[in-house]
Amino acid sequence: MNTLDLIKNRRSIDPDHFTGAMVEHHIIENMLEAANWAPTHGYTEPWRFIVYEGEKIASFSEFHASLYQKHTNAEQFLQKKYEKLKNRARLCSHVIICVNKRGDKSNIPALEEIAATSAAIQNMLLVATSNQVATFWSTGGMCYHQSFAEELGFTIEDQVLGILYIGKSEQVQYEGKRISEWQAIVTWK
């Protein structure tokens, strides 16, 4: 598959559609290596990844749900959301927390560090797709809550940019669609 077709065929697959089968370790390592080759201004390489696999996934899920319970006031707390966070990864092979670690080069704007980390995440998703591995990049739950990053050992300057749920799925990949053709979003000068 050429690169453009790979990009067009990358899809988010809901973790509820995973089979529970393990993704081979070398594929996860290839995803992480691809992430490390993302473009980065000043070689800051701001991406950091925390990988949960096997029985550690249940501890992540418990941690995520308990953080939601701890930091959500009673009026906004939803038991259904708590249960979803607690059970979301039950069929996953791996869960990867993707963090933007702010470096000490203050001359590099924070936005560029976020862009670099996002590019690293996209590289991971493309490697997964090329290996018929299902992924779901989630920014839900406590992802953007500062306590999430802090509980993982990061500082107030750092930011979780997503949770990658990874697994195998028998769900048929569907053809991608866009509302506009690429020509509609480009202005030639």
CATH class: Alpha Beta
Which range best describes the helical content: under 10%, 10-25%, 25-40%, 40-55%, 55-70% or over 70%?
Answer: 25-40%
**What's the rounded overall pLDDT mean?**
94
CATH topology: NADH Oxidase
Count up the helices: 6
Q: In percent terms, what proportion of residues is strand?
A: 5-15%
**Name of the CATH architecture:** 3-Layer(aba) Sandwich
Question: For the record, what is the CATH homologous superfamily label?
Answer: NADH Oxidase
| SSE class | alpha+beta
The number of strands is 4
* Tertiary shape: globular
Largest sheet: 4 strands, antiparallel
Distance between the termini: 33 Å
What is the H/E order? HHEHHEHEHE
Q: Indicate the multimeric state.
A: single chain
Biggest sheet, spatial arrangement of strands: 1-2-4-3
**Total tally of structural domains:** 1
Low-confidence stretches: none
Radius of gyration: 18 Å
Structural description of this entry:
A 4-stranded antiparallel β-sheet has the order 1-2-4-3. It contains 6 helices and 4 strands; from the N terminus they run H-H-E-H-H-E-H-E-H-E. By secondary structure, the protein is an alpha+beta fold. The chain is globular. The protein has helices at 3-9, 25-35, 56-71, 79-87, 110-130, 146-151; strands at 47-53, 94-100, 134-138, 159-167. The protein has a single domain (3-171), classed as 3-Layer(aba) Sandwich (NADH Oxidase). The mean pLDDT is 94.
Topology:
Elements: H1 3-9, H2 25-35, E1 47-53, H3 56-71, H4 79-87, E2 94-100, H5 110-130, E3 134-138, H6 146-151, E4 159-167
Antiparallel strand pairs: 1-2, 2-4, 3-4
